[in-house]
Design goal:
The complex is a heterodimer of chains A (about 190) and B (about 120). With about 190 residues, chain A is of the alpha+beta class. In chain A, about 35% of the residues lie in helices and about 25% in strands. Chain A contains six helices and six strands. Chain A has a six-stranded mixed β-sheet. In chain A, helix 1 runs antiparallel to helix 3, helix 1 runs parallel beside helix 4 and helix 4 packs antiparallel against helix 6. Chain A starts with a helix and ends in a 9-residue tail after the last helix. In chain A, about 40% of the residues are buried. In chain B, about 40% of the residues lie in helices and about 15% in strands. The N and C termini of chain B lie far apart (about 50 Å). Classes of the chains: A alpha+beta (about 190), B alpha+beta (about 120). Chains A and B meet through helix 1, helix 4, helix 5 and helix 6 of A and helix 1, helix 2, helix 3 and strand 2 of B.
Chain lengths: ~190, ~120
C-alpha cells in the first residue's frame, strides 16, 4: 500500500464484511510522543480471542475464495517498518477496535494519502453504513459524521454528486486545518 | 471553510432539480476493492468512474464495491452488471479505461472488448 488512506480503506472493508453498521476512523497525531495513531472501530460481529490473536497472520482469513488474507498483515508491516505496532481488541457480538501506531518522524512512515477520497468511496459503496471520521492534532481536532450529513439532507441521497463533492471538500478542509504543516505530505 | 449549513442549500437545489428517480433498473458498476484491488489502484479507477458519470450527468448508474473476485493478478477488476443480470468483466483497469467504458459501454452500449477478461486471457 502506498499510503495510509489506502490501508484505511482496506481495513474498513473488513468491518463491512463483519456486518458493521457504524464505523469510526480516528487519526490522531501527537507531537509530544511523536506518534501517529490510526484507529478503526466498528460495531460488527467481532472475533473471538483465538481468532483475533491469529488474524495478523497472512494465512488466516474468513473468505472462502482462497486461504490468504493480507489486509491486516500489510498494515502491521507498515506500522512496524515505521517504528510502530498494531493492536486489535475484539469482542464477539460487539465489535472490533484495530489500532496501528506509527512514529511520525520515521523515514519509512507512509504518508497520509487522500483520506477524503477514501471516505467518499466508502460512503458511495455502502451508503447505509454510518461513518465517523475523527482527526486530531495537538493544535485542534475535526469531526465528520455521515449521520449528521444525512440528517441535514433529509430525503436527498448522500450519494448525490453534489453532496459527495461537498463531503470531499469538507474533509479536505478539516485535514488541512488539523494537520497543516505537521503532516505536510497530506497535500501531495 | 465549509460548513454544514451548505448542505441545506444542496438539499433544496437537489429537490428542485429531480423528482426522485428509482434506481431499480439501473446498470451497476462493481469494483473489486479487496487488498489486492486497492494495492493495484482500484480507488483511482472508482473515482474516474464517478467523475465521468458526474461530468455526463448520468444518474441511473450505481457504483459499488465488492471484495476479492479471485483473479488478483488481473486487478483492478471492474464488472458492469446490466439490469437483466448479465455482466461484463473488465480487467487491469486504469482511470483512462474507465472514462472510455463510460462513454462506449454505459452510454452507447458497445462493450469495450479489448479490455475484457476474455481478451486478456486470450493473449
Amino acid at each position: 500500500m502506498r499510503d495510509l488512506s489506502l490501508h484505511i480503506m482496506d481495513i474498513v472493508q473488513n468491518s463491512i464484511s463483519a456486518e458493521a453498521t457504524c464505523i469510526k476512523v480516528s487519526i490522531i497525531a501527537d507531537d509530544e510522543t511523536g506518534k501517529l495513531s490510526v484507529e478503526i472501530e466498528d460495531n460488527g460481529k467481532g472475533m473471538d480471542k483465538d481468532f483475533a490473536q491469529r488474524v495478523t497472520s497472512p494465512f488466516v482469513t474468513t473468505r472462502s475464495t482462497r486461504r490468504v488474507g493480507l489486509g491486516i498483515p500489510l498494515l502491521q508491516a507498515s506500522a512496524e517498518r515505521a517504528g510502530g505496532y498494531l493492536t486489535i481488541h475484539s469482542e464477539p457480538g460487539s465489535g472490533t477496535i484495530l489500532r496501528a501506531v506509527f512514529q511520525i518522524n520515521h523515514i519509512d512512515r507512509l504518508p497520509l494519502g487522500d483520506i477524503s477520497e477514501t471516505m467518499t468511496a466508502l460512503i458511495i459503496a455502502n451508503p447505509d453504513v454510518h461513518y465517523m471520521l475523527y482527526i486530531k492534532s495537538n493544535k485542534t481536532c475535526f469531526e465528520f459524521s455521515t449521520a449528521e450529513v444525512k440528517e441535514k439532507l433529509g430525503e436527498v441521497p448522500i450519494t448525490g454528486y453534489e453532496v459527495v463533492a461537498w463531503i470531499k471538500d469538507f474533509i479536505d478542509d478539516g485535514i488541512k486545518n488539523t494537520f497543516g504543516g505537521v503532516l505536510n505530505e497530506v497535500f501531495s | 471553510m465549509k460548513s454544514l449549513a451548505e448542505l441545506e442549500e444542496i438539499r433544496k437545489r437537489t429537490l428542485e432539480q429531480i423528482s426522485m428517480r428509482t434506481n431499480k433498473d439501473s446498470v451497476r458498476i462493481v469494483i473489486g476493492m479487496a487488498t489486492c484491488g486497492i494495492a493495484a489502484g482500484a480507488r483511482p479507477v472508482m473515482n474516474a468512474f464517478l467523475e465521468e458519470l458526474k461530468k455526463r450527468n448520468i444518474s441511473n448508474v450505481n457504483v459499488t464495491m465488492t471484495g476479492c473476485i479471485g483473479v488478483c493478478r488481473l486487478e483492478p477488476v471492474v464488472e458492469v452488471v446490466n439490469p437483466d443480470g448479465s455482466k461484463v468483466t473488465y480487467v487491469k483497469m486504469t482511470p483512462e479505461k474507465a472514462a472510455r467504458i463510460v462513454a462506449e459501454h454505459i452510454i452507447n452500449g458497445r462493450v469495450c472488448l479489448e479490455y475484457t477478461i476474455g481478451a486478456e486471457e486470450a493473449k
